[in-house]
Every structure is written in C-alpha cells, then in structure tokens.
C-alpha cells in the first residue's frame, strides 16, 4: 500500500493520512504574523508530522484556486512549500483539482462545504470542518487511483 498524506492547504489546513498506527485526519492552523512565517510553520509541521508518524510515500494536495488576491498567493505558496518538502525528502507529490475531489465525493463538481462534510460523515468520519472533509475525500481519491506519479 502506498502511504499517502492528503492536504487541503490554507491557513487552516485539513489533512488525512492512510498510514501509521491507524488512518487519521485533522486540521492544523498556521498562525504566523506574515505569509512567510506561515510557510515556515507549514514546513516545520511537515517535518515534525512525518518524523513522528513515519514518512509518506506520496503527498497530495488540492490545486490552488486562481481567483487572485492574498488567498491565492497564500495557497500557491503553501503548495510550493509542499513540493519543496517532497523534493528534499524524495517523496512523490501530486495535486487534484477541487472539481475532481467534489465529484468523487458527492457526484457533483458543485458540491457545497456542507455536502462535503456530510459525504465524509456517511463514510464514518467525523470531520471538524470542510477543510478536514476535503482532505479525507482527497485521500480517498488518491487511493482509488493508486497514487498517480507526477
């Protein structure tokens, strides 16, 4: 089985993994006072997370939305940091567009945050929010495809 870490990247990042003592998911909030500080927090979290929980073979993330503005800059930066971390550690990395994740989870690319949470609950998960729900569905999508290579 390929060990996958799935990330719904943002200041409040949802994560899910299929390896370690048992599959898990959650949310981590990066609180740095600047965008750069939050990027450093993400790298530190990835280092610590993978050190404690073993190393993933593949990290997948949701492709950043390109709406413009500060949120887009942050998401693009977060995804760049994940790719950087993966390259430093010899890990595969892949991304999935939000529409594909929503379609996989609910059957429609236009699913709401509430629908994504409900779909995760139907699978037996209890996500804290839509970020965690998205990470869960992203993990399941990547597993269903056997972990695509770049």
Short description:
With 150 residues, the chain is an alpha/beta fold. The protein has 5 helices and 5 strands, in the order E-E-E-H-E-H-E-H-H-H.
Describe this structure in words.
- There is one protein chain.
- This protein is of the alpha/beta class and 150 residues long.
- 48% of the residues lie in helices and 18% in strands.
- It contains 5 helices and 5 strands, in the order E-E-E-H-E-H-E-H-H-H.
- The chain has a 5-stranded mixed beta sheet.
- The mean pLDDT is 90.
Blueprint of the fold:
Elements: E1 4-8, E2 12-17, E3 24-29, H1 35-52, E4 58-62, H2 69-88, E5 92-96, H3 98-106, H4 113-122, H5 130-144
Parallel strand pairs: 1-4, 4-5
Antiparallel strand pairs: 1-2, 2-3
Helix pairs in contact: 1-2, 3-5, 4-5
Key phrases:
150 residues; alpha/beta; five-stranded mixed sheet; globular
Biggest beta-sheet profile: 5 strands, mixed
What radius of gyration results from the CA coordinates? 14 Å
Low-confidence stretches: none
Strand content: 15-25%
Q: State the shape.
A: globular
How many DSSP helices? 5
Order of strands across the widest beta sheet? Answer: 3-2-1-4-5
| Class from helix and strand fractions | alpha/beta
Distance between the termini: 18 Å
Order of helices and strands: EEEHEHEHHH
- What oligomeric state best describes the polypeptide chains here? single chain
Total number of beta strands: 5
């Amino acid at each position: 089985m390929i060990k996958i870490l799935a990330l719904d990247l943002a200041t409040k990042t949802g994560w899910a993994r299929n390896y370690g003592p048992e599959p898990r998911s959650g949310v981590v909030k990066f609180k740095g006072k600047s965008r750069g500080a939050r990027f450093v927090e993400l790298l530190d979290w990835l280092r610590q997370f993978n050190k404690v929980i073993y190393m993933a073979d593949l990290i997948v993330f949701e492709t950043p939305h390109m709406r413009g503005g500060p949120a887009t800059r942050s998401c693009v930066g977060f995804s760049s940091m994940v790719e950087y971390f993966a390259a430093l550690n010899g890990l595969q990395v892949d991304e999935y567009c939000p529409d594909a994740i929503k379609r996989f989870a609910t059957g429609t690319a236009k699913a709401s945050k509430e629908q994504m949470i409900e779909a995760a609950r139907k699978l037996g998960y209890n996500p804290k929010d839509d970020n965690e729900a998205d990470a869960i569905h992203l993990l399941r999508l990547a597993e269903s495809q056997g972990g695509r290579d770049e």
